[in-house]
Amino acid sequence: MEKRVVFNHKLLPYLLLAPQLLITVIFFFLPAGQAIWQSFFIESAFGGDQQFVGLDNYTALFNNPYYFDSFKVTFVFSIAVAVTGLSVSLLLAVMADRVIKGAMLYKTMLIWPYAVAPAVVGVLWAFLFSPAVGTLAVYLTHMGLDWNPRLDSTDAMALVVMAAVWKQISYNFLFFLAGLQSIPRSLIEAAAIDGASPARRFWTIVFPLLSPTTFFLLVINMVYAFFETFAIIDTTTQGGPGSSTNILVYNVYKTAFKSFDYGSSGAQSVILMFIVILLTIVQFRYVDRKVQY
Length: 293
Prior knowledge:
By secondary structure, the chain is mainly alpha-helical. Helices cover 70% and strands 2% of the residues. The chain is globular and about 75 Å long.
């Protein structure tokens, strides 16, 4: 017989959900509501005075060419982080899954970067690639590469992408490794007996069976690139040189706390929120059809 959990106390399920619901309301719904409210006003940089302007903040944004530059930078950055991060993580997971001796040591070392705070990741990579004292930057210079993320926009974008990918690799690695270990070995062994090469076994058996995990991580990595890379950008390039690494979430911060334009910052937050919601819907509606469950 199927066993079911029965709550004799009608309030108990709601009490168990209350802490999570409280956190969601305080840290998501209230800030989102405040951003929507502020987007319809202009206010003094020192607070106190507010004036209702309707959709003027949104109109000003869409008439600002620099804001559209942030769109381009964000999409290039997010695609680079998602594709590079998933590719490297899958390669590491496949290699770790084949290791027999010292497997736990390898897996533990690959998981460690996830425990590092994003701000620390940014400082670490900024130091390693500093044109003046960075070990890796000096090595690149000796190889004849003119590396300077403070002046070259391509170098700056490469730096923040590498830092963001390194921070997220551990998370992706964990899910890919779990997915690989859940694939029945009998399928791979049967393909090997039929004469399929390792590459063919991977692309025809392993990778299709990993498609649910890959799809999930694609959504997570896109959201990560849009929202959770603020600290990395702030500690490495501060959106520069120029606006070459000024992604949307960092532009929200600059508008609010450097330009003190809280109305425009609120409007940017609302637009960014809708972009991520729309992106997630598109991924689940269209990309999900390609996933083999």
